[in-house]
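Hey, resending since the last one bounced:
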Amino acid sequence: MSLLIHKPTLWRQIQRENFTSVQELADFLELSEENRALLLDQPRFVLNVPRRLAEKMAKNDVADPIFLQFVPLLKEQVASPGFTADPVCDKLFRHGKKILHKYKGRALWLATSACAMHCRYCFRQNFPYENEHAEDFAYLKANSDIQEIILSGGDPLSLNDAALGQLLYAFDSIPHIQRIRFHTRFPIGIPERIDNSFLELLSGLTKQVFFVVHTNHARELDPEVVAALRKIAALGIPLLNSSVLLKGINDDPETLLDLCQALINAGILPYYLNLLDPVEGGAHFDVSEERGRELLRYVQERLSGYGVPRLIREEPGAPSKTFKA
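The structure tokens again:
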């Protein structure tokens, strides 16, 4: 009697090729000794970057905007006033193990702690994730004012389709939940995640789905990434983008304009431009609110209104995201 051998999916095989060693990535990028001296070799928030993104990084260039988003630098060890482990006070709004309920009408589900990549400015890098969630569904069912469930993490697409499907269909069965929203960066690094199995999962849902990707620079949107996301749009699912305003990455007028143009040309509506959440170790990414307004005025003068994101900040305890422009 032969045993069935379950081969890992293509996207999972690709994920296993991520760079997780700072020195191996430094070798791949052909960094000089001078540039290697800027790296944080043993970061608390470990390096995790897909090869697709590493291949987009310029060789021996520590100012490259893709490099800066994912590679740990010694700057992360500099303590800065106001930059904390829990900058948006997630713990104050936790209900059960996996639910954050901050705003009326919607709740956020922390699907997993895992991500396809580790962004150095991640505001949830210190969050104490839990695996159990039995009582969380009871909370959702008991709160009929929750009309929208937001899948976040970590990254919900880190779950395999069996686990993700079980979760999605559980949400889909709750009568008062009308919308299911994904927040994900996974397709930017591993577009192969958008495979037929995942598309079948989405097409089986009865509730309206929204798909929000996180892209900060136009170079992240290569043809394979765009093609994968268009498969989702073909199901009638709106595509939106949420960016973070980051120093040295997208705080230049032409760079931000290029990003917005690349998004709308791909059929993705720029949704939010987030001011940095002040997470410890991230102060070197900070861009002022006034600079953010200047940048969006530049974009607004050159693009149709649907191509201009809204400048926002998350302020703990506020009834919604706070609009700054």
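The two ends are 67 Å apart (CA to CA).

Sorry for the duplicate.
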